[in-house]
Write a structure and sequence with these properties.
Blueprint (H helix, E strand, L loop, with lengths): L10 H38 L2 H14 L2 H6 L1 E3 L8 E3 L2 H10 L8 E8 L2 E10 L2 E16 L3 E8 L2 E6 L6 E3 L2 E3 L6 E6 L6 E2 L1
Length: 199
């Protein structure tokens, strides 16, 4: 004679196990979602604060005429050689962008080379129907973004305008008066942008 034993489970016991399983699944799902958000967010921020991200931000700021953002993205190099006047401060950048905003259609960044606190990023964009390629130089500062990510600034080398002004003639560049000795060729350091020179 076979004896059969039936173990009964109370509804309260089933409910507790069901709730425990659901909570475990929710906790695991939340943890996985958090990992995805952290990894994805870190990858996005690392790209934004990378040398290539700094270059893209700078060129887009110029294109938008946003002098404040462009100024915060650069480090101006010393002019090559002796100059008689300098227009390479934040106000000069704002004045130059007010004259004409540059355009960089099809802007893209390529190979990035990092050597300690210096970096180089290949940049390309369309110029009069042709692809123009440049190499942007960057330097890393001691400042940290969000307390963790390094800050890269684009190194901007000034362009030199050589002017020879007759005596008795005043000159302005982008609306700013410039003191230049008459009847003598003088060098003025400016940003590598379009400028309006008026006599």
């Amino acid at each position: 004679m076979t004896q059969e034993t039936i173990a009964a489970t109370s509804p309260r016991s089933l409910g507790w196990r069901h709730r425990f399983g659901l909570r475990s699944q929710l906790a695991a799902g939340s943890a996985l979602l958090l990992v995805v958000i952290v990894v994805g967010g870190n990858a996005y921020l690392a790209g934004q604060y990378s040398p290539a991200g700094a270059v893209t931000h700078y060129f887009k700021a110029l294109q938008a005429g946003d002098a404040s953002s462009a100024w915060a993205s650069i480090q101006v190099a010393d002019p090559t050689g002796t100059v008689d006047a300098k227009l390479i401060d934040s106000q000069a950048l704002r004045a130059a962008l007010a004259v004409r905003k540059p355009s960089f259609p099809g802007l893209s960044t390529g190979k990035t080379t990092v050597n300690g606190t210096a970096a180089q990023v290949e940049v390309s964009y369309q110029f009069h129907g042709a692809t123009l390629q440049r190499r942007a130089q960057l330097v890393q500062t001691a400042e940290k973004r969000l307390g963790f990510y390094p800050t890269w600034r684009v190194v901007v080398a000034p362009t030199i305008l050589n002017l020879a002004i007759p005596a008795g003639v005043a000159v302005t560049i982008d609306g700013k008066p410039v003191a230049i000795a008459p009847n003598k060729r003088q060098a003025v350091a400016v940003f590598p942008l379009a400028h309006r020179v008026q006599l």
